[in-house]
Specification:
- Claudins function as major constituents of the tight junction complexes that regulate the permeability of epithelia.
- It is found in: Cell junction, Tight junction; Cell membrane.
- By secondary structure, this protein is α+β, with helices and mostly antiparallel strands.
- It has a single domain, classed as Butyryl-CoA Dehydrogenase, subunit A, domain 3.
- Helices cover about 55% and strands about 10% of the residues.
- It is built from four helices and five strands, in the order αββββααβα.
- It has a five-stranded antiparallel beta sheet.
- A hairpin with a 3-residue loop joins β2 and β3.
- α1 packs parallel to α3 and α2 packs antiparallel against α3.
Length: about 220
């Protein structure tokens, strides 16, 4: 597989991870109700996300409510909002930077500068993966801690929702795609550096006259 194909593959994985982060940010299923009571028949399910919480009735009806106050939110929700929005913006920057320095585009002439731009795009994708991993692990730690805390009533216990798993999958795509983009820059540099060849000068004939083939 050539470096250009690896670069396109890394860019595709980075875009999928970026879309996954946006999807996880918007979904309200970061925490869901944990059914640990003896009676498994429940009337409603509670979903809690970064921007709203939803109540799903057993009949299928769902009601969602956006959080009223930002300052009244828990610190993990505030940090999750900030980091996911930053990652969404950085993902767009990484996409534009990588496309500008990609081998399949002609925005910049091939050379060291183009290779460095590709490395910068891959590094931004890796940074996005690291940043989005912070709120995901923070939420998971809180959910697991409260689940095994005997002082928390069963009605307040939560489980990890689908948004966390989507976020972890997006993190893996961002990290892997960023690493592929950075790794392909080395082979790109080797392909663009052509050896310089020198040709030997023509020697005049023994009688100090040029060869007849030089004349038209």
């Amino acid at each position: 597989m050539t470096s250009a194909a690896v670069e396109i593959l890394g860019l595709g994985l980075g875009i999928l991870g970026w879309v996954g982060v946006i999807l996880a940010c918007g979904l309200p299923m970061w925490q869901v109700s944990a059914f640990i009571d003896v009676n498994i028949v429940v009337a409603q399910t509670i979903w809690e996300g970064l921007w709203m919480n939803c109540v799903v009735q057993s009949t299928g009806q769902m009601q969602c409510k956006v959080y009223d106050s930002i300052l009244a939110l828990p610190p993990e929700v505030q940090a999750g909002r900030a980091l996911t929005v930053i990652v969404a913006l950085l993902g767009l920057v990484a996409l534009m930077v990588t496309v500008v320095g990609a081998q399949c585009t002609n925005c910049i002439r091939p050379g060291r500068m183009k290779s460095r731009i590709v490395i910068a795009g891959g590094a931004i994708y890796i940074l996005c993966g690291v940043l989005v991993l912070i709120p995901l692990c923070w939420f998971a730690n809180i959910v697991i801690r409260d689940f095994y805390d005997p002082t928390v009533p069963p009605s307040k216990k939560r489980e990890m929702g689908a948004a966390l798993y989507i976020g972890w999958a997006a993190t893996a795509l961002l990290l892997f795609g960023g690493c592929l983009i950075c790794c392909c820059s080395c082979s790109q540099r080797d392909e663009t550096s052509f050896p310089v060849k020198y040709s030997a000068p023509r020697r005049p004939t023994s009688n100090s006259e040029y060869d007849k083939k030089n004349y038209v």
